[in-house]
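Task: sequence design from structure.
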């Protein structure tokens, strides 16, 4: 509530947040398609403005797609806190996106303690499972809209997933990774 107040966002509607740059290989065209199917939900996009988005995506932009432009990195925790759901995109039409791109944004989302919807790609599944996120079928706007609508009403399931996501974020931190490496080196050199 405080984050929404500080950012000037409405308090009376669910917010799905996509944060990231606008690249063709991300499958951005699914956003306006899914937003059109969920008019009572605000689709907040942080990372560029409406004209930048329109240059890449030829889909018409529904009224519930809002753009905040590029925001400073230190402001992003406010945007994450203001959202009901955080969204990670991925497309099956681009082999890099589908098989090899595990977005750094996903790790930020995990640490935010907010519910996450993610594209069901092998690259993203290397990091998370159904314990931490709800998956949608890549490039399927109907399935994304279904996942968003179901997350907005499932508060207890979302709490469990958000807690699992935060646990995974701690286990994936640079400190935790460094500790595992040091432990491995100590174990193999002391044997």
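Answer:
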């Amino acid at each position: 509530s405080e984050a929404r107040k500080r950012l000037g966002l409405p308090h009376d509607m669910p917010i799905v947040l996509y944060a990231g740059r606008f690249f063709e290989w991300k499958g951005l065209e699914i956003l306006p398609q899914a937003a059109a199917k969920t008019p009572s939900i605000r689709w907040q996009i942080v990372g560029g403005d409406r004209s930048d988005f329109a240059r890449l995506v030829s889909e018409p932009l529904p009224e519930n797609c809002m753009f905040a432009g590029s925001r400073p990195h230190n402001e992003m925790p406010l945007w994450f806190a203001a959202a009901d759901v955080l969204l990670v995109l991925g497309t099956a039409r681009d082999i890099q996106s589908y098989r090899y791109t595990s977005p750094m944004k996903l790790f930020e989302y995990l640490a935010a303690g907010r519910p996450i919807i993610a594209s069901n790609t092998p690259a993203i599944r290397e990091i998370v499972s159904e314990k931490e996120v709800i998956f949608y079928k890549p490039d399927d706007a109907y399935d994304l809209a279904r996942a968003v609508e179901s997350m907005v009403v499932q508060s207890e399931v979302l709490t469990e997933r958000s807690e699992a996501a935060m646990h995974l974020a701690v286990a994936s931190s640079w400190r935790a990774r460094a500790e595992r490496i040091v432990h491995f080196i100590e174990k193999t050199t002391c044997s």
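The two ends are 54 Å apart (CA to CA).
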